[in-house]
């Protein structure tokens, strides 16, 4: 307490900080005005660029030439379960060669739909069963079955790998605080802020254009939530349970596997849910390096500007995402309630009646498929398409509202986007490093200042400053507008239960939509460019602003609200003077998450013509230039880490101030 008090007393007072910031801003303005005399302080000199990209490329070439035996071994090992899942769900098993080959069919689509219904019914009742089974039936009737099963096969192999890896990494980090602080947390920060495209480049170089590459990239991208959930779940186990297990004579291993992990199961299941959703999102993007499936269908349709086909594949992704999300959430909820305990029974089918029924239906329908083709593959006669309707709808909107849409697009570009972009790209790199370092020092001291300044300087010394500021401009505008929309909606939801019931299903749906699906409708109306990227990013990133604001207002202690009422505060005064200030740290966490989600989406929007770091990664992917892509990916990650650390420091300071 004494050290903290002396440290806080040593910090400059508020008035002095205002003077320091005024001087700092004046110094940056002088730098900008003297850019002819001091060009190196505004635009980083090309002669001083550090060739990090070339070093990374050389390292990747060395790994490829000297460790090819290792990558081939990994591909062979991982290819076995992946090929089995692909054959089981999407293709078929070929036994033998040539004319004597015998083909075993894939699982019947009717059986899979029935099994999905049974799983939903077992986890959450008839309503959830109808929803999950209906989503799979929708995919079949719209002719997307094979593509959806390719995607599901990849997820079914990647997700268990992510869960097991994340569980053991989380246990290790929980047991070894030094490892969590020095290794695990920095690694998780990088893994969660590096853009998805950047994962594809080294996988493509090392493992080739194949489903195995896509699966490895997916597994790396989707593991962090399980690690964090494991650490959080174990740290939240009550100390009484820990003490009781020791009193009962449990060894350390028994205590972990029989007491602590079962107690943390609800939190672990939330991590499983997040792993499934991230894996689905990444599998869609990994279609670019051989994953195939629904993501590849969307990609082809977008490239050919086939509006209807892109929408149908996108809606199939949505159906699969909703089914997997609701099912995993229901299982997590049931685990939390402890309803999954089964009585001991010698027979398998008595202990697991739903699983036995699902396996039986799958086996019977697949065997029938050997003789009845309608069971093996979805008959074309019962499928239908809405592609012409989507195309006609877009054509109608374009014809009738083209002038309005174009006027809005041009006005936004000329009056908002271009001026902000010019300001950001012309901002002195040295000034940005200095100001961000100063902010870090004010919020948390020298360590944060050095981290923030160093990560910002990396973007300049690698020759990516202009692209970095283009990313900051588009991400900043999108996140700002998303907060302008999301925070008021969250405030209204917090003050009205009826409004919250309307908003919650909407934001839940937005949260399960893969990022690809936000681009499709916007690019139809606004064509490619920054406006399309901005609108898609706002739609993708608005959810945390709404959710955290609503949660922050509602979690204010009822005792404080009652005390305000007793003191004579009106409802408006109670809201603005008690609830809002106390919820401000939570709201700022929502702003932080909004910025990170906007940054992730901006990179994907490189597909629709943005000119920023995302485009660098996209070009590097097309050229298999690992150094260029990885360095651009690191620059994007560092933008996210800088924003995250500064907002977290501000939030911690606000929480401490509010007690």
From TrEMBL:
The keyword Cell membrane is annotated on this UniProt entry: yes
Transmembrane segments: 16-34, 69-90, 102-122, 128-145, 152-174, 194-222, 268-290, 310-327, 355-378, 420-441, 448-465, 471-494, 506-525, 587-609, 629-647
Membrane topology: Multi-pass membrane protein
Location in the cell: Cell membrane
Primary localization: membrane
Record key words, sorted: Cell membrane, Membrane, Transmembrane, Transmembrane helix, Transport
Entry-linked Pfam families: BPD_transp_1
Boundaries of every ABC transmembrane type-1 domain copy: 148-328, 468-647
Protein family (similarity comment): Belongs to the binding-protein-dependent transport system permease family.
Protein name (Swiss-Prot/TrEMBL): ABC transporter permease subunit
